[in-house]
Design a protein that fits this description.
214 residues; 9 helices; 57% helix; 5% strand
Amino acid sequence: MAVFSRHARVNEPDGSRMRVRAALSLINQVLDESLSQLEGDVRADTRWAVAWFRQYGFEPGPFGAAETLSKGTDTDIGALGRAGVVKSGGGKVKLLSVREIPEDHDPADGDRVSEWTVCLHLAKRLREQGADATAALMAAARDFVDLDDVKELAYHLYLIAEQKGWAETALLFNDLGTSWTDVEDAARRADGPAPVQGQFRFGGEQPEAGSRWR
């Protein structure tokens, strides 16, 4: 979309003018493909949460729709509630936002850790307590989730939020993404030398600190 703001005309491959609606359609197509690949690698709670987030963000939605989605993603609303992913009542279900999740999260507590919960708690910790506290949480989460998947999830949540025009939420996940390398380095120092089999593979260049994920 930045291309449209910089140039007076953007063309289709055949030379005709590309309309903004056509560009958005292409963006949605690529985003869907990328999300589908990610969702095939993550846990059921995360798959449900991402699908719900795309539809409702952190606003409430109908319980019936949430229950139908849970059956398609092999989870259930009660379990999502116990895991600290959602709250429900009055025929509505909503994802817990960063403001609503607890400050003292420990991945070792409970038995339903997911990439979603780790991602949100990392974003919350970074915003409210800074990089050192975030690094400590990242080090603790390493034994429970694949941090590479959490990083990819943060990127996709940023893309969804920006596409939807949810500026504050997009900034939240953008901050986590652009700080990831520094936080990860601090987490490794805090955790001590990791065994070879515990190291993660990180592909692609990371955005520089302070930049935006584009």
